[in-house]
Specification:
globular
Length: 80
């Protein structure tokens, strides 16, 4: 599965998403997918995401910049 394909949403995910204006929902959806893949799954080994925190971040003005600086290497040992 491509990580950009959005998984079914939990009730908390829906609540956080629905707290945003319609124009911010696509930004939130991409942010959740990117965060879940890059920060949560790759770095920490678990796809847990606090959607309410990400919604607050988007509401505060977060958006994907035009320059990506690269991935942060994981500090976790590889899973066996």
């Amino acid at each position: 599965m491509n990580y950009k394909q959005h998984e079914p949403r939990t009730a908390k995910h829906e609540e956080a998403r629905n707290s945003l204006p319609d124009e911010l929902k696509p930004i939130f959806d991409d942010f959740v997918a990117d965060y879940k893949f890059a920060a949560a799954t790759i770095r920490y080994g678990s796809p847990f995401v606090s959607c309410s925190v990400l919604a607050d971040t988007v509401r505060a003005g977060w958006h994907l910049g035009t320059e990506v600086t690269g991935a942060v290497p994981s500090t976790r040992p590889p899973s066996e």
